[in-house]
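Exercise 7b. Backbone tokens:
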């Protein structure tokens, strides 16, 4: 128990040092520490610079959607892209507005599947906001 707590504290302190590449496992760690509650402590400590980190519950949800909808099969779990440079989404937020991202997800094109019939408007919104935070 005690040791668990310590590990959690350490994980959140190291949060800012750990690069984007390990965000996914980190989120798992934080989620485990939060014990399924709203994770208020992680949210209050997040400075603006790391607001993009998936400690934001909406972004955690978006990341889940990204996995469950198989986006990762083409874009990769680290967003580096698996089927060509155009599928790299690591800085998609500096290229496209969240609206443009939403449109791409809805309408697809250029190898990107159409998602407007499989994902709700709200979920597309979450995904777009999250991807738009990737700058
Ligand atoms: C079958 C492979 C595939 C899947 C699955 C896929 N994409 Fe894509 N995606 C692509 C390709 C290829 C492009 C580049 C399209 C182009 O050149 O216009 C792309 C482009 C994008 C872009 C625009 C990137 C840019 O810089 O213009 C976004 C945003 C995006 N995908 C998000 C998603 C999301 C979110 C999902 C899951 C809901 C998803 N993709 C699933 C293949 C895929």
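Sequence design result:
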């Amino acid at each position: 128990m005690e040791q668990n707590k310590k590990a959690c504290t350490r994980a959140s302190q190291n949060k800012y040092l750990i690069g984007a590449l390990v965000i996914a496992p980190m989120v798992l760690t934080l989620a485990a520490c939060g014990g399924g509650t709203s994770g208020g402590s992680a949210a209050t400590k997040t400075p603006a610079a790391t607001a993009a980190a998936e400690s934001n519950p909406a972004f955690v949800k978006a990341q889940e959607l990204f996995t469950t909808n198989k986006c990762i099969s083409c874009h990769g779990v680290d967003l580096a892209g698996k089927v060509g440079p155009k599928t790299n989404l690591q800085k998609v937020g500096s290229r496209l507005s969240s609206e443009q991202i939403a449109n791409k997800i809805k309408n697809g094109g250029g190898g990107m599947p159409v998602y407007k019939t499989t994902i709700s408007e709200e979920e597309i919104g979450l995904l777009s906001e999250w991807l738009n935070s990737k700058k």
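Instructor comment: Residues 66, 69-71, 73-75, 83, 86-87, 89, 92, 95-96, 101, 104-105, 109-113, 115, 127, 131 surround heme C (CB under 6 Å). Residues 2-13 form the longest helix (12 residues).
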